[in-house]
Amino acid sequence: MTMKGSGSDVSSSFIIAAAADPDGISVAASVSGAANLTIGGTLASGGSVTFDSPRNVTILSAADDSGITFTVTGTDESGTSATETITGADTGTATGTSFFATVTQIATSGSSAGNVSAGSGTSICGVMSTERMRLRGIYVVNGTAAATISFREGSATGTVVMQYRTIAGASTNSYPDVPDDGLLFKSGGYVTFTAVTDLTAMTTFQS
After folding, report:
1. Is 70 within 8 Å of 106 (Cβ atoms)?
2. 10-residue stretch averages of pLDDT, the chain, 207 residues long
3. Torsion (CA) 115, 116, 120, 125 in degrees, nearest 10
4. Which residue, 8, 36, 52, 188, shows the most beta carbons closer than 10 Å to its own?
């Protein structure tokens, strides 16, 4: 969520990430043949999912689905159409690595061996701005573990412009220093971290 103050060229982005939800996209059900999972979990609305912040997708298999794939379709952290193919797990969780802002379809390449569910993972990409920006300030609500979060230019996998080490202290606050002139992100600013453990929320200020 991005807001801009009246009479100011500084805007703010509120980045929040809930805990992972293993069946938030699609609840456990078997799949017969090449078909689509039913997107109807608690995170879904109208047959699609819009995440709180762009994050990865997980596929949970009750039996051996290592012989089939699951193709996730939606949009990425910059709003561009995106797909990722995830190979099923042998009785466990298969974890995607791409970041999705929305999920509109998950297609299987064949029948599942048992029940399958799909949900949200813990890898998060917070979006400060998809356009040229200068980071002016940061307010962080820490998570349960100390960790390094990365501020990147251009995309979730772009060049690291800055890194910041959080502290272990759930619900405690930090105000990391930013140079007076700010930090320039020429093609948009993104921040990557692990949900809940690294931090629970962040507000960034940019112009």
Report:
1. yes
2. 64 93 98 97 98 97 98 97 98 98 98 98 96 96 93 97 93 91 96 93 96
3. 160
4. 188
